[in-house]
Write a structure and sequence with these properties.
By secondary structure, the chain is an alpha+beta fold. It has 12 helices and 10 strands. A hairpin with an 8-residue loop joins strand 8 and strand 9. Helix 3 crosses helix 5, helix 4 crosses helix 10 and helix 8 runs antiparallel to helix 9. Bound molecules: fe (ii) ion (FE2). Fe (ii) ion binds next to loops. InterPro entries: HD/PDEase_dom (IPR003607), HD_GYP_dom (IPR037522). It comes from Capillibacterium thermochitinicola. It holds the Pfam family HD_5.
């Protein structure tokens, strides 16, 4: 299975991971042969990369932090929360709690699992996918930091709903295919205050959930917003969601901004700690996210090419795709002589 840009996908390839639409429904299932028509349509819809395999190729099993079923329900639940908030109705907190419990059940039963997939997003499903991913990454970080399940619950809820206040921002600003003006940026920044107000009015949610949404753009040196809090004035949940949100945004890209690879985003976040991000949170993030997710096409220091077929907290399993060892599998551990030098796709 490879993660390839649409232009490199040929008609002998099939979809290896399902594509979800903005409602959390499956738009295209895995196994579907990617005909020219499908590819043209997906390109039109704004998809840039897909997980694919050649027809007949065997796909190795690998574990993911959250099942496709939970992913779908979470996207659906977040969308529902956003539409309720947009109409100034109360959220369905029972359903939000249920989703949080599913996410925690799955993440806590899988001790070595990493955040190991790139997301397949387009502009339609971007927002809810983003929120769910930030929820999953924040939970993985909290697990690394030794949080109890109870404490994680509020963090995961706050992370899933961190951008809820966006429903109060003029949608015309949010869909601009260009960098925003200062005035537009100021309007967008208000989403943190709006999110706090919306979430604090939910009696069934802990006030910490509202504070997480309020503080997720604060930065350690006081350069963040809305209040310019410094260091530990920012609640730990806010510091965690700041890292998860930044990683997710950096690796997603926008029309006017190219997505970073996972290893590049991790490097950048490490370089920005301790000024912008809590170094302990960044260290836990580094242990929670795969630098080279499954499907990455890489070049090794032996000049051979390979595909990452599995990755967990202890090792990366690659399959050679060129050279004399083509198709052979190999485990790369931190002290292995063979190392990944570059990611091609
Ligand atoms: Fe935000």
């Amino acid at each position: 299975m490879r993660y390839l840009p649409l232009d490199e996908i040929t008609e002998d390839m099939c979809l290896a991971r399902p594509i979800f639409n903005g409602d959390g429904r499956i738009l295209l299932s895995n196994g579907v042969r990617l005909t020219k028509n499908y590819l043209a349509r997906l390109k039109e819809m704004g998809y840039q990369n897909l997980y694919v395999y050649r027809a007949g190729e065997e796909i190795n099993d690998f574990s993911i932090p959250v099942s496709d079923q939970t992913m779908r329900e979470a996207i659906h639940g977040v969308k529902d929360a956003f539409s309720k908030a947009a109409q100034r109705q109360h959220l369905n907190t029972r359903s939000v709690n249920e989703i949080v419990n599913y996410i925690l059940d799955e993440i806590l039963t899988n001790p070595t699992v990493l955040y190991n997939l790139m997301d397949i997003k387009n502009h339609d499903n971007y927002y809810y996918h983003h929120c769910v991913n930030v929820g999953i990454i924040s939970t993985l970080i909290a697990k690394e930091m030794g949080f109890s399940r109870d404490k994680m619950k509020d963090l995961t809820t706050g992370a899933l709903l961190h951008d809820l206040g966006m429903v109060c921002v003029d949608p015309k600003i949010l869909t601009q295919p260009r960098p925003l003006t200062d005035e537009e940026m100021a309007a967008v920044r208000e989403h943190t205050n709006y999110g706090f107000q919306l979430l604090r009015s939910e009696r069934d949610l802990s006030i910490l959930v509202a504070h997480t949404a309020w503080q997720h753009h604060e930065r350690m040196d006081g350069s963040g917003y809305p209040k310019g809090l410094v260091g530990e004035e920012i609640h730990l949940f806010g510091r965690i969601v700041a890292v998860a949100d930044s990683y997710e945004t950096m690796t997603s890209g926008r029309v006017y901004q190219k997505a970073m690879w996972s290893h590049e985003a991790i490097r950048q976040l490490k370089e920005s700690a301790p000024e912008k991000y809590d170094p302990q949170v960044v260290a836990a993030m580094e242990r929670s996210i795969a630098s080279y997710p499954v499907g990455s096409v890489v070049v090794l220091n032996t000049h051979e090419e390979a595909v990452v077929v599995d990755v967990n907290a202890k090792k990366i399993t690659i399959q050679f795709s060129s050279g004399p060892r083509v198709n052979a599998l190999m485990d790369l551990e931190p002290d292995s002589e063979i190392k990944i030098e570059e990611r091609l796709s």
